[in-house]
Design a protein that fits this description.
Number of helices: 7
Distance between the termini: 14 Å
Shape: globular
């Protein structure tokens, strides 16, 4: 579920236009030498930044599979997330988290690098899930750490960023979200918004996802029970926010 908004709508929109520029423009394609050994191939891949488009057309199946991997949270990575997604009052030890890198097809139909921080208990499943989605050429617009948006969930969703770990509370409650433990993932959130009632009015998050509220309409990137994303996540034991009764979180998959 979403974090509570702390900024005005107009201010948030203007800030988003400036802040998200780096993730809205086209990215160049990195050419990774396919002649390298499996381990050397991954080392070349590791040098590239998440969201970069990569050419893996000449890679072997083993080389590609090696690009779906997990690591512990390094000191360098911890510096990147501390004070953002990993709040100063975070009660989840970093030893319980893992950094996961994958490949995914973007809306431009190119292969991109994706990154997530997940709970270590689901890290292997997440690697497998995104490998299966990759094999089906399932399109995910971008997948970078929410820290690229200063851990502002509204900005991340508005930019249609797929993300996982973010230490925060469930909207309007004192309870920690499953995202706080790295046990929940939001996929293509703009096209699959979080919808709930507040004072009798329908609230849509992200706000620029309102055009996708009517789930009876047919449009690209919509998660339904017939969608590969739903089928693969639920097959691995994740539940879907689109099945909830009191509200709907169409982007959200979580595991207990």
């Amino acid at each position: 579920m979403r974090a509570i908004k702390i900024t005005g709508k107009a201010a948030l929109f203007l800030f988003a236009l400036c802040f998200l520029g780096a993730f809205s423009r086209p990215v160049s394609t990195a050419n990774i030498a396919s002649a390298a050994s499996v381990n050397d191939y991954r080392k070349q891949f590791q040098k590239e930044r998440a969201f970069t488009a990569v050419d893996v057309s000449g890679a072997s199946k083993k080389q590609v599979r090696k690009l779906f991997y997990k690591t512990q949270i390094s000191n360098k990575l911890f510096e990147r997330i501390y004070g953002k997604s990993y709040k100063k009052n975070c009660t989840v030890p970093k030893s319980e988290l893992r950094y996961v890198r994958v490949l995914h097809y973007g809306f431009d139909q190119q292969v991109h690098i994706g990154e997530l921080i997940t709970n270590k208990s689901v890290a292997d499943e997440i690697r497998q899930i995104f490998y299966e989605l990759y094999q089906k050429k399932y399109e995910i617009e971008k997948m970078v750490l929410v820290d690229e948006y200063d851990a502002d969930d509204d900005l991340s969703m508005a930019d249609n960023n797929t993300s996982c770990f973010n230490f925060r509370k469930v909207t309007g409650t004192a309870h920690l979200s499953k995202h706080s433990y790295g046990l929940a993932i939001d996929v293509n959130p703009r096209y699959n918004p979080y919808v709930y009632k507040k004072n009798g009015k329908t609230v849509c998050e992200p706000e620029n996802g309102k055009r996708f509220l009517n789930r009876k309409k047919d449009f690209a990137h919509k998660i339904t029970k017939k969608d590969a994303c739903y089928r693969i996540f639920t097959r691995h034991g994740f539940s879907w926010g689109g099945d909830w009764k009191s509200l709907k979180d169409y982007q959200h998959f979580q595991k207990k």
